[in-house]
Amino acid sequence: MAGDSAYASLYRNYIAEVSTEQKLVDTFLAAIMFTGIIQFAYACMVGTFPFNSFLAGFISCVGLFVLLVGLRMHINPANGSKISRERALADFVLCALVMFFVVFNFMG
């Protein structure tokens, strides 16, 4: 245990204690964060000629990230959420649909 790094210990605890649903949400969060970083880097290097399209894409990444964090908080049993997992998923889907509708209209 003395030679054990903090990252290895964190990884072992994550694998042992986190449910499959939370791991799936975490993977999706990482993918969305990577997509937002790629969009921002592209805008910095190439430019933001269709500015509404860049903003719509970046805002959809940020918005979906926030909604997924809320979903992860609700499906984590350690947080003691008062609503069921099904209700949390339904709320997430409804909010994501509304957000994508707004983003689609913003693109013009």
Concise overview:
By secondary structure, this protein is mainly α.
Would you write up a description of this structure?
The N and C termini lie far apart (57 Å). The protein contains four helices and no strands. The chain is an all-alpha fold. Helix 2 packs antiparallel against helix 3 and helix 3 runs antiparallel to helix 4 (85-107). The protein is 80% helix and 0% strand.
Q: What is the H/E order?
A: HHHH
Q: Say what oligomer this is.
A: single chain
Assign a percent range to the helix content: over 70%
Beta-strand segment tally: 0
Q: How many helix segments? A: 4
Describe this protein with a few key phrases:
single chain; mainly alpha; 80% helix; 108 residues
Topology:
Elements lengths: L5 H12 L2 H26 L5 H25 L9 H23 L1
Helix pairs in contact: 2-3, 3-4
